[in-house]
Amino acid sequence: MQELIPNRKIIHVDMDAFYASVEQMDNPLLRGKPIAVGGSENRGVVAAASYEARKFGVRSAISGVMAKKNCPELIFVKPRFDRYKEISNKIQKIFREYTDLVEPLSLDEAYLDVTINKKGNPSATVLAQEIRQRIFNEVGLTASAGISVNKFVAKIASDYNKPNGQKTVNPDDVISFLEELPIRKFHGVGKVTTEKMYQLGIFTGLELKNKSLEFLEKHFGKSGNFYYHVVRGIHNSEVKSDRITKSVAAEHTFDVNLSSEIFMIEKLELIAAALEKRLKRYNVAGKTVTLKIKYSDFSQQTRSKTLPYFISDKALIIEVVKELLYQERMKDSVRLLGISLSNLNTEEKKFVVVQLKFDF
């Protein structure tokens, strides 16, 4: 018996090269040029790249050294997260004029459930077009969108006609869309999993769909159940307007590697202060403190401790961090330090979703 696909109307809006586009908008001298936000030609990691830079293989998460090697004309720009947050808030305000069911994933993307919307417009496709046009007119940036019956398909669809485009996958087309989709384009299937699926003879959604639940769970564990259902268009995750924060973190990459714990403590004091500020902003506290250490060879280590009580104060956080820092000797000089607080005092709210049937 075939399971029914929930008939919701979900829009996934994804800003085009958001950080880089903001920098090009604010500085006309950068327009049309290959730029990287974050990192430098000597160290650091790229946070975002303009489309002009992406043509040369420059992308987020690669080292600044590699980015400059790929694109000798690359211009590095320091990130301005306060500015990105300011722009993001303007975009979020536009979203909420259409629906209260907005789930931000980051500063530059969000899900909108427009099944029932404030404009009374039955067409999610038309609403997506209108939202993208308003972002361009009122903010000055372009956005892409995916529209479909659930978050999974909408997320994939938003990447289809980038930049400055959109794609609608209607209810009757979901199965064929997923069957024809290359497995590497499935949201949630990373590089390692893609290679594993290739080894198992799975290159498309159809080949994934032909595998039994038992087969997928045997080879992919709990994720196998997820793959089995999403390729059949079944993904019942609601758009949650109040996403529950699971952890709050702050970190910093240093211009000069740190080789002494004394210098690290000085930096960790500053990071803990930034974390305390964020915890107060979210009005949360947590029990689990995690120290993140990235060494000069880019290897990474985390050390955690869970307390029997909630904390949010900088002094208490740094006390635990010092204990974690001195647990063992550093194996190399350190390029990045971070502190996160998890196991927070938040409770997930219950959501009731009414599923209706209608035209897209």
Automatic annotation (TrEMBL):
Note accompanying the cofactor annotation: Binds 2 magnesium ions per subunit.
EC number: 2.7.7.7
Residues the entry annotates as binding Mg(2+): D14, D108
GO terms of biological process kind: DNA repair; DNA-templated DNA replication; error-prone translesion synthesis; SOS response
Annotated Gene Ontology cellular component terms: cytosol
Residues at the active site: E109
CDD domains: PolY_Pol_IV_kappa
GO molecular function: damaged DNA binding; DNA-directed DNA polymerase activity; magnesium ion binding
Keywords: Cytoplasm, DNA damage, DNA repair, DNA replication, DNA-binding, DNA-directed DNA polymerase, Magnesium, Metal-binding, Mutator protein, Nucleotidyltransferase, Transferase
Annotated UmuC domain residues: 10-190
Main location, first listed in the record: cytoplasm
Segments forming a coiled coil: none
Quaternary assembly: Monomer.
Family per record: Belongs to the DNA polymerase type-Y family.
Function comment: Poorly processive, error-prone DNA polymerase involved in untargeted mutagenesis. Copies undamaged DNA at stalled replication forks, which arise in vivo from mismatched or misaligned primer ends. These misaligned primers can be extended by PolIV. Exhibits no 3'-5' exonuclease (proofreading) activity. May be involved in translesional synthesis, in conjunction with the beta clamp from PolIII.
Protein name: DNA polymerase IV
Organism: Flavobacterium sinopsychrotolerans
Gene this protein is translated from: dinB
